[in-house]
Amino acid sequence: MSDTGLLLVNLGTPQNPRPGDVRPYLREFLMDPRVIDLPAWRRWLLVNLLILPFRPKASGHAYAQIWTDEGSPLLVHSRALAAKVATRLGPSVQVELAMRYGQPAIGAALDRFCAHGVDRIVVFPLYPQYSSAATGSSIEKVFAEAGRRWNTPYLHVIPPFYDHPAFIRACAEAARPVLDEIRPDRVFLSFHGLPERHVIQSDTTGAHCLERDDCCARIVEANRHCYRAQCLATARLLADALDVPTGDRVVCFQSRLGRTPWIRPYTDEVLVAQAKAGARRAVVLCPAFVADCLETLEEIGIRARNSWIESGGERLALAPAVNASDTWADALVTIVREHTRWLDHTARPLSLRAGA
After folding, report:
1. Number of helical (H) and strand (E) elements in the chain, helices listed first
2. What's the pTM value of the predicted model, to 2 decimals?
3. Distance linking the first and last C-alpha atoms of the chain
4. pLDDT, tens digit, for every residue of 206-235?
5. Residue 33 burial (CB < 10 Å; 0-12/13-18/19+)?
6. Same fold, 4-161+327-352 and 165-318
7. Which of 72-86, 192-206, 298-312, 332-346 comes out lowest in average pLDDT?
8. How is the chain split into domains, by residue range?
9. Which of 155, 205, 267, 309 could disulfide-pair with 252, CB 3.0 to 4.6 Å?
């Protein structure tokens, strides 16, 4: 019996692309105060009166275009990753996968740990860069679910891995064949966007974030929790690893929602502008996502590609996420073991082991 567990947490996916099943997933996601950080009554009105009557149909159509025979790509890749990680760690560590929204649920994963006597759980949020909307919300949910139990498990959370050499290496390995094939004149490193107010709130000094053009040029105390700064750090390291010339790389942010300012530049606008300016062949990397999903396969792989061609470009290719590659599975295990000895069953004092 294992007494140590590894919980891999990703954001989530609906169970199928039908609007009736997309709606509850979107409601759970958008009603999270870390996602839409408005007063509760305003968030309720926005979600239930302005978003949910319309978006489930459009989102369902988008999901249908990327759905596979096995189901949601994000869930398929995440399950395959969990299986590979479990093989690498062996029977002494129980590995579970959970989604912040939808299924498999975090609470159910904790139940499975409990049923097998697992009382020490390493939590690995599968988001390379920290954001309150994804990382923070997932950590909060894990602690809330753990706190409902009389015998609470002991939790160790792995921090963001945006600059870890093993993660960068896995991303580069996934992208290099596409770059070699396309030989692009532009490489876009597109990250999921956030409202500007979210990154400003991450600045504990209140005097650094977005106060000057180079505020994210390097990680300092004031921006060590800044999503944008971490994205730019990932972009620099990954582009350097791939030998992308500085003049050919473009960092941008996708998936904005609503009318409030989001962090810039916007991916959809940058792609159109670059194509109209004469760029012809492009590759898009999305290193904020460790598994291909709606935002990569549909937003970039379909919509962005169409916009590129309509604007004068010839070819745009999406580099795959690290998904369940062997290199990424190895990297994940490396990252976890660097942050905790809990996964080494020999590291636990004898007095704390069952039967000792």
Report:
1. 12, 8
2. 0.94
3. 14
4. 899 998 889 999 999 999 999 999 999 999
5. middle
6. yes
7. 332-346
8. 4-161+327-352, 165-318
9. 267
